[in-house]
Amino acid sequence: MKRIPLYEYDRRNREKIVEVVEAENGLMLSAFRFGEQNGRIQLPSGTKYMLIDVSSLFANEDRVTSLLPYLERIIAFVQNIDRCEACVILERQYMASAKGMLYFALGEVRSLEEKLGLTELLSNNIADLSEKDFEELCNTVRSRLFGNPEFKERLFEELRRFRVFSTMGNQRIFSAFLYGTSGIGKTETARLLHHCLAPSEQLIKLNFGNYSSVNSLGSLIGSPRGYVGSSKGELSEKLLNSRGTVILIDEFEKASKPIHNFFLQLLEDGWFTDSLGRDYDLNKYMIIFTSNLTEDKIDTELAPEFRSRLNLISHFEPLSLEEKEAYVRFKAKEILSGVPEEKRSSITTELINDIVDIDVSEVEDLRKINAELMKRISSSLYPIFYSDET
Description:
Blueprint: E1 4-9, H1 14-23, E2 27-30, H2 31-36, E3 49-53, H3 55-58, H4 68-80, E4 85-91, H5 95-101, E5 106-111, H6 112-115, H7 131-144, H8 149-167, E6 173-179, H9 186-197, E7 204-207, H10 216-221, H11 234-240, E8 246-250, H12 257-269, E9 271-273, E10 279-281, E11 285-291, H13 295-301, H14 304-307, E12 312-315, H15 321-336, H16 349-356, H17 366-386
Parallel strand pairs: 1-4, 1-5, 2-3, 3-4, 6-11, 6-12, 7-8, 8-11
Antiparallel strand pairs: 9-10
Helix pairs in contact: 7-9, 15-17
């Protein structure tokens, strides 16, 4: 039996893959659709190639073995078809299982993205940005992240250094540990970086406030097969469902020792394997750790070997009065930009001044400022949006 190559792909690229296949007169079938046609595929005229996606057969690991004959039929079809090129494709997360089950029929594992000329798809990361786009990212962070100007310039300097070493293959993950009181911009830093790189994707965010138990590593990367409880990990699933390359870890100091050790190894290697044997390559990702620790606790709470692996450790200072007032004006303008065109004539300068007239002198937490601002905006806009019309 001749072996066939297996083409793996990142599930986050699926929509683009389908788009390219259709544009090139290719045909893409799921394993179940193939089965419905009993292998008697009616190829449209001019079909260039056929891709049979067997990912759905591996989605339930408890049923994979029973579906082996079905997989063998698909492989036999691909081996013998002569009407066009046919390939078996599979989401990368299932590759370890596929290689173990189909070792007798599979040859080389190849990249489907490369085959289709989609090697630039995953370039929504800090290392592969053009210099123009990188400077635009820096300018966006400067203008939208209020306070801590020294931190921002240090961040850009460290990101430039990472871009160089990442390109040379000497560094895989950029990591920063931001600490200070709540609500002064630590989380917003990660959100802004994510928005600049992958605005249409979900931010990969984990809060370690509930990750303090000795078994918490299972919650992060999944529990072994047969273990009573969840078999899927929060980090694993969020990585599979977002093309974003920024990971936000809130309240890192509350995590258990096994979690700390996991990230210690992750920052060293740049990849990890979850409980189901799926590999996750985080090359060119950014991990932003945030913490409410005070300066005097950093040395005692963070192990020296962990600190040495971080690109940046920075203490966030509370915003000055002028910075908070500038933030209120900026945020109000941003929110009010969403007012429908037909209502904008009612948004007068006087109304805006009333909205932003907030006493922020005794408030440090920007979340509290946001809450007050939203309250004032809703009170001001409600009669404009829902006034009785006669």
